Amino acid sequence: MKQLVTNSVIGIARWSGLMPAFRKIFAGPVAILMFHEVQQDGRSELMTGTSVGLFEYSLNWLQQEGREIVSLATALERLASDAGTGRRCAALTFDDGYRDNVTTALPILERFNAPFTIYVPTGAPKRTLQAWWLGLREMFRSGDTVTIEAMDRRFHCPRLREKMAGLNEVTEWIHQDYHRIATLDPTFRKAGLSLSAQNEAYFLDERELQDLARHPLASIGGHTESHAALSCIDTASARAEMADNRRYLEQLLQLPVQHFAYPYGDSKACGPREADLAREIGFSTAVTTRHGQLSGLKSDHFALPRLGVGGQFDTTAKFEARISGIQSAAHMLLGSQR
Fold first, then answer.
1. Cα 2 to the center of its chain, rounded Å
2. What's the chain's average pLDDT?
3. Which of 143, 56, 72, 156 is nearest to 108 (CA)?
4. 60-70 pLDDT, tens digit each
């Protein structure tokens, strides 16, 4: 029902010419966009990232709609100084430190002169990251039958649609309880799957990260040591995850690391404790995965919402709806019907 209402509002707004009105009412002055991989061949990666077409479309659309793309720091400065002026801007963020952020996305970012922030967990360039999402994708991509013992589920998936559906089901199961991540280790071992090899294939290495950090459009942010779900560990461990990651990146890059992204940014994985830790450690901002845009002077710089772009079901129309605030309007409509 929720998706049906949202899609209906999107369709009405697009084809009736009401999109500008929705933007004026519902869109905040600052939007922080969230990307992960930017993929040349989305089908081979089970449509898990952002396609080149959608990525380029999103930047072009922002430009055409008068939303200047600025750094995260500049966006927040403008939010504080431009309250009520109506000027809108966007900040671009990328999680995890994927190599295709450089090989595929960077030339497009350069063409648009678009600043961006990439959040990097220590384990990615050091090749120690337990990137379970890459392991699962490889299993579904390469096999027509996938067994997840911890779920007591066996997926028969010879076709792309079935592979995507199976991967999505397991991923959602993990996000319901982040303690389940550890239960995937025996499955990966049984399949002979090396997560270190997945790190090597997909993430920037230390030298590549150093080169990127010198780029005038790039900022590097923290993302913990191990991509931990912070709420699932004790305070001392959470602090170490965040502080040690910042220290590692600053030593590697010889640059200050001011921004942070919670690895799992929903309300189950990060909250007031994690925000306090980010502040204590010395970060200037911390972004979540919670949906929303920024408006007003009271935005919490350590619980910043973002708008995700990409994934199996994303489209240009849905992207426009998110940035224009139509999804927020649909959610408000649903709320008024309860």
1. 22
2. 90
3. 56
4. 999 999 999 99
Closest CA to 136 of 95, 96, 171, 178: 171
Domain definitions of the chain by residue range: 29-129+203-313, 132-195
Helices (H), the chain: 2-16, 19-26, 52-64, 72-81, 100, 106-111, 132-142, 160-176, 185-190, 195-202, 206-213, 235-253, 272-281, 316-324, 326-336
Q: Which two tokens stand for residue 294?
A: 């920024």
Separation CA 149–CA 162 (nearest Å) = 19
Amino acid at 111: R
Please give the Cα distance from 88 to 65 (Å, whole number): 9
The predicted model scores a pTM of 0.91
Locate tokens 């380029």: which residue? 56
d(CA 201, CA 204): 9
pLDDT tens, position by position, 168-212:
999 999 999 999 999 999 999 999 999 999 999 999 999 999 999
Q: Tell me which of 3.40.50.300, 3.20.20.370, 3.80.10.10, 3.40.190.10 is the CATH number of domain 29-129+203-313.
A: 3.20.20.370
Element (DSSP H or E) covering residue 222: strand 218-222
CB contact at 8 A, 324 and 27? yes
With H, G, I as helix, E, B as strand and everything else as coil, classify residue 302. coil
Distance, C-alpha 271 to centroid of its chain: 17
Q: Which tokens hold the place of 53?
A: 């077409």
DSSP 48: -
